[in-house]
Every structure is written in structure tokens, then in C-alpha cells.
Design a protein that fits this description.
The protein contains 6 helices and 18 strands. With about 290 residues, the chain is α+β, with helices and mostly antiparallel strands. The longest helix is centred in the first third of the chain and has 16 residues.
Length: about 290
């Protein structure tokens, strides 16, 4: 979906990194936005706010005031900004300083031209889902953009668990753990476990066993409307991680519940953004690109 209207009046600049390259880009972004009469703000949670000449805002006020957050860094930075701002409905635009950068797709060399076009309304909106996890009867709900991982918390340590989908028993398994991933997360931790790459527009969840003690275990792909329940065996010590951000203890007394969250994430891309082009360039998929016939 290509937008033709400029909807951005107040933009927050965020980074979880703090080095000279990030600060140089942040100042460059401020200059571009100021020339376009866009207000720039800096969240207090950003690592670069103290080095800028503007007063910082609380994350809560950023959510209330801003209609776009620009995240400078890699996918890790974008994940943090998604948790802090995107889950509350603020769109995120990523400037890539990382290695792979499937979510942060604007290169610093193209930043001024791409950002100017986006502010003028030439951009693509990309809708992604969050996972929501809770443990037992605890009302706390944890959000993840890429994956929720049940794991042993130790090296070479198996756990035993039962998997249920929509309250139907699927299997009992011994493994290092289980990765429950979104389509977005299929190019993240799940990929390192030899999981499938899922095109972002496909509404799917990936369930990938980690080093299962079985010759028959396979990755399972199900609808993102499915509700996942995990039950850990009595003697297994397990933990739950969300986007590698938290590590919560899980006991056999408390089942783990995972489903699609009500909240979603809006990513902003340049109009030439292509998921398959990213796969070719970042994963070395192709020997080349065919020449277009005139």
C-alpha cells in the first residue's frame, strides 16, 4: 500500500546504540527534518538523547505526541523501538547500521533522499503482528515481534514438554526447547535453527524444535490465529524468552500460553522495498539478477 499524503508532523529519533556514526546520522536526520518543517524529539530511553541539543521526552509522551519513530541501528534497535513505541500504534522507520537488517532497510548512503521522499508521502506501510505470551494464571502479558522461546537455560540440557494447538494435543517432545516464531521472526533466530523463511504477508506461526532428541521431529507451520499452549514436564527446568529480551522461569505447575496479540506493528519502507530483494542481498540466495528486456 503506497501512501500519497504526508502524515508526519512530529518525529522521534531513537537508537539503542551510542557512537559517532549514530550521532552523525541523527544530526543529519535532524537537518533533513528541520528543512521540511518537521518537529524532532528524542526519547529519554534513547542512548543518543543526552548528546543532542534537545530536551528528551518520556516514552509515554513520545507515544502521545509523535506520529513516527526513526530507529537508527540494526534489527535489535528496531525490536526495542517496537516494544517501546510500535506496540502502542506509532509507526517505525529503520535506518540500517547492522549486518542483516531485514527490518531496518534504509542505508545511510541513501538516507537523505529516501527520508525526504517518505516525509513527502512516498512510502509503503507494512503491517506485522506481535506475539503475546503469559505464564500460568499471571495476568502479565509479554510481547514479542520475532519469537517466543521455551528453553532449558543451560548448554546441552534437554527439557520435556507437551505442545497443544487450540487445546488439541500435538506431541510430547524432549529437546533443548521450542521456538514459536512469527513470519517476521522467520529471518531471525528461527533461521539459525534451519527454520523456513516465511514471506511477511503470510499469516503464519512457526513452531521449531531446538535440537530435538528424535529423528522424526520437524518444523510445524500453523495459522497465526492458533493459540499455543506448552506444558513443561515435572522434572524439567525451563525458561521463557521474548525476542531474547526477557528470561522468565517456567515450572510444571504453570502452562505457557502464546497467541497473536491484539496490537500490531506498522513499519514504514521506501517505495522500492522488496522482501525478496533483501533475501537475495543479505542471505546470498541468487547467483545474479536477470536483465530486464526493454
Amino acid at each position: 500500500m503506497v501512501s500519497t499524503k504526508n502524515k508526519f508532523k512530529s518525529i522521534a529519533i531513537y537508537s539503542s546504540l551510542k557512537d559517532s556514526k549514530v550521532l552523525h546520522l541523527a544530526n543529519q536526520i535532524v537537518e533533513v527534518l528541520s528543512n521540511l518543517d518537521i518537529e524532532c524529539v528524542f526519547p529519554n530511553s534513547s542512548q543518543i538523547t543526552s548528546s543532542m541539543k534537545k530536551r528528551g521526552l518520556s516514552d509515554k509522551n513520545v507515544v502521545k505526541q509523535c506520529d513516527l519513530v526513526i530507529a537508527i541501528g540494526g534489527d535489535g534497535t528496531l525490536l526495542t523501538s517496537a516494544r517501546n513505541f510500535g506496540v502502542f500504534g506509532v509507526p517505525i522507520l529503520g535506518i540500517n547500521l547492522g549486518n542483516l537488517g531485514f527490518l531496518t532497510d534504509i542505508q545511510p548512503s541513501n538516507m537523505t533522499a529516501d527520508l525526504t521522499k517518505i516525509i513527502k508521502g512516498e512510502y509503503i506501510k507494512d503491517q506485522r503482528i506481535f506475539l503475546e505470551a503469559r505464564i500460568g494464571e499471571d495476568k502479565t502479558k509479554y510481547k514479542a515481534l520475532n519469537e517466543v522461546v521455551l528453553h532449558s537455560g543451560s548448554i546441552a540440557q534437554l527439557i520435556e514438554y507437551d505442545l497443544f494447538i487450540n487445546d488439541e494435543f500435538v506431541y510430547r517432545q524432549r529437546a533443548d526447547g521450542l521456538i514459536v516464531s512469527t513470519s517476521t521472526g522467520s529471518t531471525a533466530y528461527s533461521l539459525s535453527g534451519n527454520g523456513p523463511i516465511i514471506s511477511p504477508e503470510l499469516n503464519a506461526l512457526i513452531l521449531l524444535p531446538m535440537f530435538p532428541h528424535s529423528l522424526n521431529a520437524r518444523t510445524l507451520v500453523t495459522s497465526d490465529n492458533s493459540e499455543i499452549r506448552l506444558k513443561v514436564a515435572d522434572k524439567s527446568k525451563a525458561y521463557l524468552s521474548m525476542d531474547s529480551h526477557m528470561n522468565m522461569r517456567v515450572s510444571s505447575r504453570n502452562d505457557v500460553y502464546i497467541k497473536k496479540a491484539n496490537e500490531g506493528l506498522t513499519l514504514i519502507h521506501p517505495t522500492d522495498h522488496s522482501f525478496f530483494s533483501s533475501c537475495r542481498n543479505k542471505l546470498g540466495w541468487s547467483l545474479g539478477v536477470p536483465t530486464k528486456k526493454s
